[in-house]
Amino acid sequence: MYAITIPEPGGPEALVWDEVPDPVAGEGEVLVEVVAGAVNRADILQRQGFYNPPPGASPYPGLECSGRVVAVGTGVSGWAVGDEVCALLAGGGYAEKVAVPAGQLLPVPRGVDVKTAAALPEVVCTVWSNVFMVAHLRPGETLLVHGGSSGIGTMAIQLAKAVGAKVAVTAGTKEKLERCAELGADILVNYREQDFVEEVRKATDGAGADVILDNMGAKYLDRNVQALAVNGRLAIIGMQGGIKAELNIATLLTKRAAISATSLRARPVEEKAAIVAAVREHVWPLLDAGHVRPVVDRELPMSEAAAAHRVVEESGHVGKVLLVTP
Length: 326
What we know:
By secondary structure, the chain is of the alpha/beta class.
């Protein structure tokens, strides 16, 4: 098969479409013929040499894909050759085939084509596990999403609205904020021109955000704590704004607030399976009914992964950028 390899870390040009050995479905695994994969920030970090796959995972980038089952390993039930699926991966999505633990497979939702389904697994699992399983967002509460027009942001808006929450977002352009509003965002903050702490307080009568989903890390830590409501929960899922910051613990104590920080890729298979099962139970019915939908910015051939990485690094996209196999 062919896959995107990274002979040496570097810029987008480091991604090479090359012939590699076919993977084999081991015990408890399913072999998927990939129709499409999707680009995530973690893939860019891996390309740069900063985020290696966990032990035993595929060396090729790609944390999610969609396609069709072509082989089923021993000990697997519930899946058969020919099933259309999408999958959460520890790596290997930028390839024509990938072996996946059966617990990390999801059926393609009704009304979503198999190619577009590649935009779902990583973002849905990230949002559901952090915003709902860890931070316990409830109806009537306010969620602040940084990077509202990203793949994760566009899904977080929709899921929060689906459970009856109010949603605030930050984004860097009027056009991106308009797209967030179309998905249901209530409070729109242009981070280049406005202070999200002030805007969220103003829109919530001084209360602040009950839950914040943050991809920035250090740069926003202090202001995120300021923006939290009493009993608020800050969920950190990224470090685009750095890894070290000072924290005013007195403010945290005064607000009786909590901070969590999670990653998905390196979790044990059992934990990923539990998240995928929760997503299938709670989110898939919303997708099947059309209440929530994947947002895709564009599709590019998988062999042109370098161009796709440039698009994501320039942050000009809304939603997901897909890589489609030949």
